């Protein structure tokens, strides 16, 4: 499915991780590690942009997460934050 200028699909939630090299208020920045298979059947292991507390709560127990990626650079996929409930 085409989404804006990217492709939309579902990815597998691999869990919330923390970037200790980037801190806000002396706390490491959280992100979601996920994997997905693109439309050419290639598997990609990616990480989201940094998450806020609300996003962490929304994502914590989801097995599948909505993502969007560009066909030319699928390794730079990110969460489709507008589709997260």
Describe this structure in words.
The chain is 8% helix and 60% strand. By secondary structure, the protein is mainly beta. It has one domain (2-83): OB fold (Dihydrolipoamide Acetyltransferase, E2P) (Beta Barrel), CATH 2.40.50. Strands 1, 2, 3, 4, 5 and 6 form a 6-stranded antiparallel beta sheet that branches. Strand 2 and strand 3 form a beta hairpin. The longest helix is centred in the middle third of the chain and has 7 residues, at 53-59. The protein is globular. The mean pLDDT is 92.
Please summarize the sheet with the most strands: 6 strands, antiparallel
Task: Give the mean pLDDT.
Answer: 92
Q: How much helicity do the residues have?
A: under 10%
Strand content: over 45%
Structural class of the helices, strands and pairings?
Answer: mainly beta
- Assigned CATH architecture: Beta Barrel
Integer-rounded radius of gyration: 13 Å
Number of beta strands: 6
Number of domains: 1
Count of individual helical segments: 1
What is the class in the CATH system? Mainly Beta
Poorly predicted tracts of residues: none
Gross geometry: globular
Structural features:
6 strands, single chain, 6-stranded antiparallel beta sheet, mainly beta, OB fold (Dihydrolipoamide Acetyltransferase, E2P), 85 residues, 8% helix, globular
